[in-house]
Amino acid sequence: MENFIVSARKYRPDSFDTVVAQSSITTTLKNAIKNSQLAHAYLFCGPRGVGKTTCARIFAKTINCSNLSPEVEACNECESCKAFNTSRSFNIHELDAASNNSVDDIRQLIDQVRIPPQVGKYSVYIIDEVHMLSSQAFNAFLKTLEEPPKHAIFILATTEKHKIIPTILSRCQIFDFNRIGISDIAGHLEYVAKNEGVTAEKEALNIIAQKADGAMRDALSIFDQIVSFSGKDITYQDVISNLNVLDYDYYFRLVEHFVKNEVPDSLMIFDDILNHGFDGHHFINGLSSHLRNLLVCKDPVTVQLLEVSGEIKDRYKVQAASCENDFLLKALEISNECDMQYKMSQNKRLLVELAIVRIAQLTLKKK
């Protein structure tokens, strides 16, 4: 039985061009390499799973490559690149600050920094989760970070920039990584699915992208989980049942009943949702999102804020045309009020049902 490699590792970018949705950062790094304007310390910060450590590794590999391509990418053929690709490079040192956060650990690092590289020009020190260093360790690190030997480059990576002391920040070039957009994640998942021989519905990949909340690593982990569940054919229904996501259809039907003031039918849909194992808070959050999506569909300028794929987007546009702005705003107000009161409420089901009744009677008052 061959070893299975999770998609997050198998499809980890190995060049600047393959990094998803961080083009401003990769372009800046490539230009710095091209013009030989390398700083001695960089700080990569941003949410989890957006490519901080990956970019640090690619940067370390590229500056040591002896045969760069015209596009400023590593050649993968020189001795330095081969050593990096087979994880035997002595030029790249990765340190986990979560488990090496004391002054003694930093002292060892400082002693190691003095040793020049045997192959290639630079020794690169990638310190992950750098905010976990103790304040004493930070202070011990300051002098070396400001004036390291010519061959040493530090790349610090963190998810919590606000925890890093200002004296460290002032010694680094700071790069802020963005959360990855839903369309970018869905596009990359489509590429991965194609490579793996998996057929996947676009709406299914869109739901995975939404659930990943801007993190590519999370998206690929969820993708592997869905493949294990449904095999080589991923459908929208498989994804929502596996990830415990409420089907869009419930909300579309619900709004239709709201507009017609059909209170009993609306309450029965909510009962059906509860019987499927979803809790009231999950439902009311989903309803608020649905009403918000209908509201942004009312104007051609804001319709681009809708983060869903083709068919569902058309359904939103059709339903938005049948709802008045005033109704949507008041309904959003009620659902938001219900969301805020949910935790404090003793009878949670009654609170949500009351919100449903109030929304269903909004157009009745107008009539």
From TrEMBL:
Reactions this protein catalyses: DNA(n) + a 2'-deoxyribonucleoside 5'-triphosphate = DNA(n+1) + diphosphate
Gene encoding this chain? dnaX
Q: What is this protein called?
A: DNA polymerase III subunit gamma/tau
Which segments cross the bilayer? none
Taxonomy-wise, where does this protein's organism fall, top ranks first? Bacteria, Pseudomonadati, Bacteroidota, Bacteroidia, Marinilabiliales
PANTHER family in alphabetical order: PROTEIN STICHEL-LIKE 2, REPLICATION FACTOR C / DNA POLYMERASE III GAMMA-TAU SUBUNIT
Does Nucleotide-binding count among this protein's keywords?
yes
Q: Which NCBIfam families match?
A: dnaX_nterm, holA, PRK05563.1, PRK14971.1
Specify the superkingdom: Bacteria
Give the source species: Mariniphaga sediminis
